[in-house]
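dude i think i finally got it to work??
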Amino acid sequence: METAAFYGIVSGISFTLHGLWWVVVQSKGDWRKDRARRLLSYIVSIHFLLPGTMSLLSIIAPGVALVWQLTFAAAGALGVAGVVLTLQALRAEHDTPRMVALMQWVVLPVYAIVTLLALVPGLPGTLGLALTALQVEAIVVTAILVFGVQSAWVLMVEPPREAATA
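look at this
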């Protein structure tokens, strides 16, 4: 598949998931009162918004590598910052679904890989991969979306712990 076609499809999927996630969050009025649920809702939103933005901007000027490199470097750094800040804030929360928190620890280095590949686009070749950095980024973006969907699912269906034990 052509890289531009892939990123075009992924941007549409990402923004659709982001919009659907807003509907879920809007329907969960009790989440607005719970700090942990607000933070987790935010990070799930980031897992959809950043891949969509990276994908869309990567096809704006396919012949100008600097465009996608700056976009991916910034998005990866924002992803790392968002996950770190969310995890720090959730550390003391008792109502954080453990599986969602675990997934954030796993996705944290994935965002770092996004930034690394953007800053060192020759890395795949150095490692002996027959892929361009933008193709490897496509795999990484897909992983972020998978973590976003899984985080959304767990957060959406797992009841608060107080309710689960009552």
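The mean pLDDT is 89.
im so relieved honestly
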